[in-house]
Automatic annotation (TrEMBL):
This is Thioredoxin. The record marks D26 as: Deprotonates C-terminal active site Cys. CDD domains: TRX_family. It comes from the Bacteria.
Length: 107
């Protein structure tokens, strides 16, 4: 079971931009093989960070507006938001240690 909450274009501002804690947005699509492999890794990362970081998932097939606004062209893409601004972009399947390192530098 995923620790990340599924959000849509309508919820993006409230869940991500207005969040008081840093947010990692996982942009994915059902047809994306690497996205499916990244899911369990992100669940582990989310468990390690606990309440320090919020994790959300956004299906780009169903939420084109937000994906376009943030120039999401490769999947999976992780965007780290802090104080309503995208501060880190990670594209592609990567090891858990790299994901953790790239999130930690924004805490």
């Amino acid at each position: 079971m995923s620790n990340a909450v599924d959000i849509n274009d309508a919820a993006f501002e409230a869940e991500v931009l207005n969040s008081e804690t840093p947010v990692v947005v996982d942009f994915w699509a059902p047809w994306c093989g690497p996205c499916r492999k990244l899911g369990p890794i992100l669940d582990e990362v989310a468990t390690e960070f606990g309440d320090k970081v919020k994790f959300v998932k956004m299906n780009t097939d169903d939420n084109l507006e937000t994906a376009k606004n943030y120039s999401i062209s490769g999947l999976p893409s992780l965007l780290v938001f802090k104080n309503g601004k995208a501060v880190e972009r990670l594209v592609g399947l990567m090891p858990k240690s790299s994901i953790i390192q790239n999130i930690e530098k924004h805490l």
